[in-house]
Amino acid sequence: MTDDKATKPGNFDMPDGNYGGDLSSSETWQLLRDEPAALLVDVRTQVEWQLIGKPDLSELDKEPFYLQWVTMNGLNESFEDELLAGLQERGVCESDPVIFMCQSGGRSKMAAMQLAAKGFTRSYNYSEGFEGDMDEHRHRNSVNGWKASGLPWYQT
To answer: How many CB atoms lie within 10 A of CB 127?
Structure first.
Protein backbone atom coordinates (compact mmCIF):
# COMPACT_ATOMS: atom_id res chain seq x y z
CA MET A 1 0.00 0.00 0.00
CA THR A 2 1.39 3.41 -0.97
CA ASP A 3 1.15 6.59 1.01
CA ASP A 4 -0.88 8.88 -1.28
CA LYS A 5 0.03 11.92 0.79
CA ALA A 6 3.73 11.38 0.17
CA THR A 7 3.34 10.80 -3.57
CA LYS A 8 1.13 13.76 -4.49
CA PRO A 9 2.99 16.96 -5.48
CA GLY A 10 2.85 19.60 -2.77
CA ASN A 11 1.85 17.14 -0.04
CA PHE A 12 4.72 16.69 2.37
CA ASP A 13 5.53 17.30 5.97
CA MET A 14 7.83 20.24 6.60
CA PRO A 15 11.08 18.90 8.05
CA ASP A 16 12.43 20.24 11.31
CA GLY A 17 15.56 22.31 11.18
CA ASN A 18 17.29 25.35 12.51
CA TYR A 19 17.37 28.66 10.68
CA GLY A 20 17.14 32.35 11.56
CA GLY A 21 13.35 32.35 11.58
CA ASP A 22 10.37 33.56 9.60
CA LEU A 23 10.00 37.17 8.47
CA SER A 24 6.89 39.13 7.47
CA SER A 25 6.72 41.51 4.51
CA SER A 26 7.58 44.57 6.60
CA GLU A 27 10.42 42.77 8.40
CA THR A 28 11.84 41.53 5.10
CA TRP A 29 11.76 44.97 3.47
CA GLN A 30 13.23 46.61 6.58
CA LEU A 31 16.12 44.15 6.72
CA LEU A 32 16.84 44.57 3.01
CA ARG A 33 16.66 48.36 3.37
CA ASP A 34 18.65 48.73 6.59
CA GLU A 35 21.43 46.15 6.13
CA PRO A 36 23.63 46.76 3.09
CA ALA A 37 24.80 43.13 3.01
CA ALA A 38 21.26 41.66 3.19
CA LEU A 39 20.42 39.50 0.19
CA LEU A 40 17.06 38.23 -1.10
CA VAL A 41 17.23 34.79 -2.74
CA ASP A 42 14.18 33.95 -4.84
CA VAL A 43 13.96 30.15 -5.06
CA ARG A 44 10.86 29.92 -7.24
CA THR A 45 10.98 28.42 -10.72
CA GLN A 46 11.91 30.23 -13.90
CA VAL A 47 8.29 29.89 -15.04
CA GLU A 48 7.10 31.63 -11.86
CA TRP A 49 9.56 34.48 -12.38
CA GLN A 50 8.43 34.95 -15.96
CA LEU A 51 4.67 34.55 -15.57
CA ILE A 52 3.93 35.75 -12.03
CA GLY A 53 6.55 38.44 -11.53
CA LYS A 54 9.75 39.32 -9.74
CA PRO A 55 10.53 41.45 -6.69
CA ASP A 56 11.90 44.88 -7.61
CA LEU A 57 14.67 45.98 -5.25
CA SER A 58 15.91 48.81 -7.48
CA GLU A 59 14.96 51.53 -4.97
CA LEU A 60 17.28 49.78 -2.51
CA ASP A 61 19.99 49.59 -5.18
CA LYS A 62 19.90 45.80 -4.91
CA GLU A 63 19.12 42.85 -7.15
CA PRO A 64 17.67 39.53 -5.94
CA PHE A 65 19.61 36.32 -6.48
CA TYR A 66 17.44 33.97 -8.55
CA LEU A 67 18.06 30.27 -8.01
CA GLN A 68 15.49 27.51 -8.56
CA TRP A 69 15.07 25.16 -5.59
CA VAL A 70 13.11 22.85 -7.87
CA THR A 71 13.06 22.70 -11.65
CA MET A 72 10.67 21.17 -14.17
CA ASN A 73 12.64 17.94 -13.59
CA GLY A 74 12.23 17.94 -9.81
CA LEU A 75 14.51 18.93 -6.96
CA ASN A 76 17.52 20.95 -8.12
CA GLU A 77 20.28 18.56 -7.04
CA SER A 78 22.94 21.26 -7.49
CA PHE A 79 21.01 23.91 -5.50
CA GLU A 80 23.36 23.94 -2.53
CA ASP A 81 26.52 24.16 -4.65
CA GLU A 82 25.01 26.89 -6.84
CA LEU A 83 23.81 28.78 -3.76
CA LEU A 84 27.18 28.72 -2.02
CA ALA A 85 28.97 29.74 -5.23
CA GLY A 86 26.49 32.57 -5.78
CA LEU A 87 26.89 33.83 -2.23
CA GLN A 88 30.66 33.77 -2.54
CA GLU A 89 30.43 35.59 -5.87
CA ARG A 90 28.34 38.30 -4.20
CA GLY A 91 30.67 38.59 -1.19
CA VAL A 92 28.08 37.29 1.28
CA CYS A 93 29.61 35.90 4.47
CA GLU A 94 28.18 33.57 7.11
CA SER A 95 27.04 36.43 9.37
CA ASP A 96 25.21 38.38 6.63
CA PRO A 97 21.42 38.18 6.41
CA VAL A 98 20.14 35.95 3.60
CA ILE A 99 16.38 35.93 3.08
CA PHE A 100 14.76 33.18 1.02
CA MET A 101 11.48 33.69 -0.84
CA CYS A 102 9.21 31.37 -2.81
CA GLN A 103 5.50 31.42 -3.68
CA SER A 104 4.12 30.96 -0.18
CA GLY A 105 6.93 30.12 2.26
CA GLY A 106 7.51 26.35 1.93
CA ARG A 107 10.45 25.95 -0.44
CA SER A 108 12.05 29.06 1.01
CA LYS A 109 11.92 27.64 4.53
CA MET A 110 13.66 24.47 3.39
CA ALA A 111 16.29 26.54 1.56
CA ALA A 112 16.84 28.66 4.69
CA MET A 113 17.37 25.47 6.72
CA GLN A 114 19.85 24.18 4.12
CA LEU A 115 21.93 27.34 4.31
CA ALA A 116 21.76 27.51 8.11
CA ALA A 117 23.13 23.96 8.23
CA LYS A 118 26.19 25.34 6.38
CA GLY A 119 26.87 27.83 9.20
CA PHE A 120 25.00 30.89 7.91
CA THR A 121 23.55 32.14 11.19
CA ARG A 122 21.19 34.71 9.67
CA SER A 123 19.38 32.54 7.14
CA TYR A 124 15.73 33.63 7.07
CA ASN A 125 12.48 32.51 5.49
CA TYR A 126 10.18 35.18 4.03
CA SER A 127 7.17 33.21 5.23
CA GLU A 128 4.46 35.08 3.30
CA GLY A 129 6.01 34.40 -0.09
CA PHE A 130 5.64 36.31 -3.33
CA GLU A 131 1.95 35.41 -3.72
CA GLY A 132 0.98 34.73 -0.10
CA ASP A 133 -1.61 32.45 1.43
CA MET A 134 -4.85 31.47 -0.26
CA ASP A 135 -8.04 33.34 0.57
CA GLU A 136 -11.43 31.74 1.17
CA HIS A 137 -11.85 31.30 -2.62
CA ARG A 138 -8.48 29.51 -2.89
CA HIS A 139 -6.87 32.48 -4.66
CA ARG A 140 -3.51 34.00 -3.84
CA ASN A 141 -2.34 37.65 -3.92
CA SER A 142 -5.00 39.02 -1.58
CA VAL A 143 -4.26 37.82 1.97
CA ASN A 144 -0.56 38.56 2.37
CA GLY A 145 2.69 38.17 0.49
CA TRP A 146 5.02 40.42 -1.48
CA LYS A 147 2.45 41.54 -4.04
CA ALA A 148 -0.52 41.94 -1.67
CA SER A 149 1.65 43.90 0.78
CA GLY A 150 2.37 46.50 -1.89
CA LEU A 151 6.07 45.78 -2.12
CA PRO A 152 7.58 46.69 -5.52
CA TRP A 153 7.53 44.06 -8.25
CA TYR A 154 7.40 43.75 -12.02
CA GLN A 155 6.62 41.25 -14.74
CA THR A 156 8.85 40.41 -17.66
So the answer is: 25
Closest CA to 43 of 108, 113, 99, 91: 108
Please say if the pLDDT value at position 2 is more than 60. Answer: no
pLDDT tens track for 93-143: 999 999 999 988 889 999 999 999 999 999 999 999 998 877 788 878 777
Q: What share of the chain is helix, strand, coil (3-state, %, to 5)?
A: 30, 15, 55
Output the pTM of the full model: 0.86
C-alpha–C-alpha distance, residues 12 and 14, integer Å:
6
d(CA 144, CA 131): 7
* CATH code of the region 18-154: 3.40.250.10
Give every CB contact of residue 66 below 8 A, 6+ residues apart in sequence: 41, 42, 49, 54
**Domain ranges for the chain:** 18-154
DSSP class of 16: P
